Structures are given as C-alpha cells and as structure tokens.
Prior knowledge:
Helix content is 37%, strand content 22%. The chain contains 24 helices and 31 strands. InterPro entries: Bact_Sigma-Reg, GAF, GAF-like_dom_sf, HATPase_C_sf, HATPase_dom, PAS, PAS-like_dom_sf, PPM-type-like_dom_sf.
Amino acid sequence: MEVFSGRPQGPERHPPVGRPRERRASLLHVRSAAGQVFLLQVVIVVLLVVAAVVGMMLQAARDALQQGRRASVIAAQSFASAPGTAAALRSRDPSAVLQPRAEEARKRADMDFIIVMSTTGIRYTYPYPREIGKKFVGTIEPALHGRTVIEQAGGPPLPAGKGTDVQAVVPVTDSRGKVVGLVSAGLTVKNVAALWLPQLPIILGSGAAALALAVTGTTLVSRRLRRHTHGLSPVELAQLYEHHDAVLHAVREGVLITGADGRLLLANPEATRLLGLPEDVRGRPVRELGLPDPVMRLLSSPDAVTDEVHRAGDRLLAVNKRPTYPQADRGGSVVTLRDTTELAAVSGRAEVARERLELLYEAGVGIGTTLDVGRTAQELAEVAAPQFADLVTVDLLDAVLRGWEPTAEGWRQLRRVAIGGAQRMVPVYPLGEVITFSPRSPQTRTLQEGRGVLEPDLRQAHGWREQDPERSRTALESGLRSLVTVPLRARNVALGVVNFYRTVDSPVFEPEDLAFAEELAVRAAVAIDNARRFTREHAMAVTLQRSLLPRGQPEQDALEVAWRYLPAEAGVGGDWFDVIPLPGARVALVMGDVVGRGLHAAATMGRLRTAVHNFAVLDLPVDEVLGNLDDLVVRMDNEEHTGAAAEDHEGEGVTGATCLYAVYDPVAGACTMARAGHPEPVVVRPDGTVTCAGVPASAPLGLGGYPFETTELFLPQGSQLVLYTDGLVEDRTQDVDVGLERLRRALGGSGNRTPEETCQAVIDALKPSHSSDDIALLTARTRTFPPSRVAEWEVPPDPALVPSVRAHCRETLRQWGLEETAFATELIVSELVTNAIRYGLPPVGVRLLHGRCLICEVSDGSGTSPRLRRAATTDEGGRGLFLVAQFAQRWGTRYTTRGKVIWAEQTLPDGTSAAPRLAPVDFLLDQFDLDQFDHDPFDHD
C-alpha cells in the first residue's frame, strides 16, 4: 500500500537521480510556485490598498451624507415639536415670532437653515431675511399628510456656500393632530477629502508592512515545502496526488490510515460513509470518533487482521488491517472495509419510523409554547425543518392573524408568517408578504379539498409553476424537488396552509410522508387556533379598556399632565386614571385598580370611572367621594353573588379594588388626597427632591363601613405629583419595596423635567421585559394662579353695598383688560351677592379668577343651595338665577366646611372657552323686570 504514503520506497530521502541542482538556485524565481505566490501577494496587497482608499472615500462621502440626513431630520422634528411652534403659526405675524427662534435653533444645531413655512410652502423664516415670503424649493406634499420628506435639492443662497444640499421637511401639528405648517431643516455636505486623507499614510504603511511580511513568509514557506516534498516539483506532486485520489475514490472499499500516535491520517469517502464519520476527522484520535467498540479496538491494536467481520451500526463489515511501514518501524496501519450486509433497506425504514415518532413528540412539546399566532407558526416551521423537510413555509389568513373568525372568502390571499429551513438557498416569498394563489395551485386545492396534496416532482407540477413562473424557475434551478402542502384546519375551519419542500439532496416525498405531514399539521392547527382566539379576546379587552380611558387632556389651568398606560401581555386588567376639571380652577386626579383581568375587569373599571366622574361633578370632599365609591363597589359585589348572576360569569366580584383621589387648588397651592388601598403617590419638588406624599393608608374599596383619611399638601409651583398602579413597582421577580426604591431613583433630579419626560424616564427604568400586570402612570406638574389674576373681598350683609361690589368688580376687570365682559360680570356678581345677603348667612365673600375663563365666586355661611326655576308673570322675584344661567357659560354650587360657594364661568373675549348660550335681549328683558327689584343692578354709582 505504498501508493498512499506519498513517499518513495525505503528510508532514503534523496531527490530523484538526474534532478538539476539549478532549480534550487532561486526560491522566489518568477517561474517557481513561491515566486508566483509572492507576485500574487503583491497584487493582492496593492488591490487591498487601493480598495481601502476607495472604500474609505466612498464611506466618508456616504457617512457625511447620512449624517446630514439624520441631522436635518432631528433638527426639523425638534423645532416642529418645540412648544409654541404650532401656536406661532396661527398668530397674526408668524415670521416675527419664528424668525429669531429659527435662527437661534439653526446656530445651536449647526445647521445651514431652518425654515418654517405655511402649508402652501410660503417661507416664514430663512437665514437671509430677503428670502422670507418666497416659495419653498422642495417637496412638501408628503409632509402635508403627516410624513417626513428627506431629499437633496437646491435653493436660494446659503451661508455655507456651495455643496450638496440635504434637507428634511416635517409637519407641524396642533393638539388635534391637524397639520398647521411645515418645518424644513438642512445643511450643505462639505468635501469629504478631509475625512480620509489623514488615514492614507496608515493604509500605505500597512501595505508596505504586508509586502515585507509576504517576502519573509514566502521565503520561509518555500524552504519548508522543499524539505517536506523532497525536492519534487509542483507538477510532480499534483500528478502524484491525482493518482492517489483517483484510486481512493474509485475503490468500493473503505480505506483508513492511522498514525503511530493513534490519530486518523486518511479516510476515503467509502470509509466515511460506512462508519458514519464526520467531515473533519483527519488528524483526530481514533478514540474520539465515536466508533463502535469492536471497530475502535481493532483500529487501536497493532495486530494485523484478515477478513474479520464486525458490526458498525446496521452494517456488517469485513475488515483487513496491515502496518504501513513494516520495515521502517514507523508505526501506523492501513485498514480496508467492505460492506457485506443486505439489511440496510429494512433498517432504514425502521429508523425513519423512529424518527417520525420522535418528531411528533417534539411537535407536541415545541409547538404552542406561546399564545402568539406568528410565533406558533414559526415553531411549526422550526420543528419540521430539517428533520422532515428542507424548507417549510406557513401561510395564514389575515383574519387569523387579527384574531377574527376565518372564512372561505380569504383563501386565495394568504400572508407568509413563518419560514424554516433553507430559505437562503431557495427563493421564496418573504415574511409578511400577501400571496395571491392561483386556482390551480396546490395551496388552493388543499384548502378546497380539505386534505393534503403531494407533488413528488415539481417540474411536472403545472399548477405550482403557473403561480409564479419566474420564481418557480429560479427555485427549481436552486435545487427544489418535491412538495407536500397540507391545510391547517381547526374546528373544521381552514386557517391557512403549511408547505413542506425537499431539495435534490433529499429523497422525494412519498404517500406515507403525506400522511405524516397531515398529522403534524393537525397538531399545529390546534395551537394556532388557540393563539388566534386569545388574540381576539385580548384585542377586544384592550379595545374596551382603551375606550374607557381618557382620550385627551381636558382644558384646565392648574396642572400640566402626562400619562402612560401599558396593558399586560397576558390580558388587560382594571387599571384606570382620570383628570377631571372642577369649579374654581381646581382639578381632580384619579388613579384606580380593579383586581382581576379580562373583559369583566375592564367593564367594572368603566363603571367605577363613570361613578367617580359623577361624584366629582357633585364637588364632594375627597373622603366622601371614596365613601360613595366604596358603597357602589359593595353593591356591585352583591350583584355578582346573587342567584341571578350567570354561573359562567368571569370574575368573582370586584372586592379589592383600590383608588386614589386627589384635588388640587391652584389658587391656594394645596392638594387634598385620600387613598383606598392604593400605592402612595410620590412628590418631586422643584429642586428635584423626591418624597412620599404621606397620605394615610385606608382599606380597599368594597369592604364597606371603613372611613377614609385625608391629607392636605402645599405644593410650590413646579412640583410634580406622580400617581401609579402597583404593576409599575411590583411583579413576580421583585418586592414592592425594591420597586419603590427604583422609582425614587428614576425620579431623582426630575425637577426640571416636563411631565412627559418624567413619564418616559420612569417607564424606561421600571418597565419589565414581560409585564404580568397593567401599568398606569400619571405625572402632574403644579401651576399656581398669580396674585395678579385673583381678586377677592368680603361683603358686609347690607344690600345697599351691592353697587360698591359692582364697582370693585368693574375696576378689577378694567385692570385685567376685560372691559367687554364687565356688563355680564357685574350683573352676575350683583345677583349672586344680593341672593347671598338676602337668603344666606354671613360672612359673604366675592372672588374673581382670571384664567382660561373668568370665574365669579360668591360664598356665604348657609348650606342651602339656590334652585333655577322659571318665574311666573305675577312673581316679584325668581329671575336672578335665570339671568346668571343665560350670561354664564356654566354655573353651580359647591359646599365647604363653612357654607357654600356659588360659581359662574364666563367666556373670555379671546375665545379660549366655548361661547355661552345668550338669549335674545328682548326675551331677557321680558323675563327681567327692573321695577320689581328694590335695588338697581345696573347702578354704577
């Protein structure tokens, strides 16, 4: 067997006789292999240097352009989202307001221009004022529809001079989402040579070093090769290798060569097949190859063997073994193997059956681990490939992905949701693409017939090929061979199809493969349908809950508010929050949590939120609001446990609901709070200090009969009140104390943040990767009424002093610049003060608040409330409140510990509130007879 050694017979190592010694004269001769390798290395180094320079130039240019695009978008969006931009666009002179802001923003952002324009493209700002009022040069149509436009365009002169102009156009929207203007920002991309020229010496130096290393390495390698090849030329070595390789591949016997150290030196393909060896066996010890014990002992033994029979897996092998160099005492051996069994086919079928059973078990365990439709489909593809098929695709109806009930109308159009196996080798429709199947395609047939379809040879599958001729041709050229497509059916309803493909490297599908594919699809379809039904129920619950939560922020002067709501992954709960404007410029903040999950919890949350709104309208104290809410929860619990309740009703009542109710008064800067089993709110002072509000803990709602303690905090302007539910600070992985400490750290230094920034910072710091409970977060920054916007005085209980009250009112309105509302305000104040003097108890007080609207408040010590009624023709009074109701936008009564306050809100001339309902003057005069009063409400003396 000397033919495998690659060495001449005998121990001599001299070169062949007659070989001229001149061939060793030059190691790097251009005609030698070493010289040619050296020249190739030189060419490669030069090409790499050139490619590096060119690549650096292109990358520098691309980076400069991309940097310009990002900077333009960031600058445009930042200025468009800046406070006051939308309001300035609606002002009378937008250029006067926006030009200095735009120039300041342009200089800070290092941009060449920031342009604010109208929706028709007329510039309001520009670095050169002479260009203001002209038409913007660029594309604005997509931005008018709410999208961002990035383009390269030329325009008027810029401070940066010439260059590639990169500009971005973004919309400016008001609070209702309407596009009120556009903002464009851009810059001139400079020459990129300065970015890559400093790197050129490094590249050239690296190339020179590489050339030096190439020379040294080639010389050393050439000398070593000549020692190992005994002076044989490359042509001779190639011929010798070709002869040896031809023999090794031609023989139908396995050949193994082992060394003296027990390592495998050579194994031909037949030996690799017979023993099931991996590809990288050369050089590995025989004991590490995982061979059967008889074969491993035979290879490790130094004894010669002749025609011994050994079992290797399901094969019976005849083995012969001889030493490689018996005369040289070098060790090692040559082993030949010959397959003598005819049981391979039977053993193969048994192995296939065992693998199928294992695959079905893996499918039962690995498919349906989550309730996500897309993930379940991907699990099916990963289980089936490559154990059963080389390529697996799953296509589902859009209705299944949305959680809807699937119908036969959508069979022609399916969406690709999962791909497993060799998708990189075979061109297939990508994930997410909607595929329209032809009527003759196997997918349409399998859906219509309700059974699997086998296409053993795709070259003859005309229906499959006509689906997409070009893609089908490319797939066949890539090696796609056969197909089994099976419908995914659950509850006798088709959800989609799963396609199993095999390539030319695998055997074609057979009828027994079709039966196995149908069994696999049945198991997967049940899991997919469960995920679909969960998706439907989850979407319904989320939709219901979001419809019950606030849609937008109400208009009010007391607080700057921001919130976040994150539903749980496993289903929605009963968390809710609210911001309710109250009379007297006050605002109520509500945060609640209903124990439970699903539609029942969301519906219960909606009932409680509605109840809190109704109780807040009555202007009750905070403890009474929680008391009334507690009574409502008790009644709801009783309803849940009555015999009339459905046996399968979800939930067990709402006992355990929690709620926090707070009322903030911006005039006094005080916040009154009470909580029923809810987590304590956190207060962030303007200096960034984080403290707990100190609200006493009371029993949760639904226990009945327990009082609710209140506390009053005085919050300076700029303080932030943070309300949250327990899902933010408590979960299965951490205790509530740990969550509270993390919340305090996240709020640290938040004194200068806006509520929106505070909410985002808290969510980023505390949001769990997998939320098991809803998270509701509400942040409110306090505002206070300036003393100049508040006017109040006491009124002695004397009707004769009413004219002086009107005079004070008139003077105050004149100082506020509200002369247009003086008539109506004097009338309202006159009537309310007169009623308080006549029918109430002292002390009588008057307070005017100038905010979004004008608020008139008259207080007295009586607990009786006036009632609006229509006076008869013969009545001498009863028309005062009617006039108040006609001239005021809203009016009402709230009770205090010292009596009551009758309040009325009026529209300001600038239209910040809705216009009041004004009755015709003649009708009012008919209802109001001045002669019937003993005081003159229009007296200005």
